[in-house]
């Protein structure tokens, strides 16, 4: 079964429409607030994914031990954040999620914090912008968020032509989760060197890079299903 949502229904993807997001329904919501830890679009989208699972828990035909979440690009960022917070997601899949998603911020390659917090400031809490051009002072990097998914299964996908999302940084982030997965006697990625195009790795942590641009293709979906089949059967 597949459950999906239009993310605009949860938080319309424009800064000036924040008052029309579900965040505005909460009693402590303040219109126009710039509190440093104010949740913004990615946090709200992630929250929305968990509400879908709330519904699925009441649907008797759904096996709750086999729930996966997949997101592409900005929704890849949200999927990772959902997976980090909600242990009901047993497989967490990020496709071309880039800066603020799977890619290591401290590589400062492709899209960076300065660019993303200027053009898309409504995606992140205001505190994130203090690291624009100041990545070396981040107290953590994205691999630590990915590691929060352990001991559940993580899959990261990249595209060779999507340099804006930093495919190498996405791979390294997944690779650096190894130490946490090893604590659970689980297998991560074997090498710090990314695999060749169209050579997927399927351990407890999985990864592939395919030819092409920023997109979700049949090849991506087939690998995601292979990974789910591996861990759900």
From TrEMBL:
Q: For this UniProt record, give its keywords in alphabetical order, as a comma-separated list.
A: Hydrolase, Serine esterase, Signal
UniProt domain 4-O-methyl-glucuronoyl methylesterase-like: residue ranges: 41-182
Q: Cite the GO molecular-function annotations of the record.
A: carboxylic ester hydrolase activity
Instruction: Tell me the domain of life.
Output: Bacteria
Record protein name field: Acetylxylan esterase
Return the Pfam families for the record: GCE_fung
Q: Where are the transmembrane segments?
A: none
Q: Which organism is it from?
A: Bacteroides ovatus
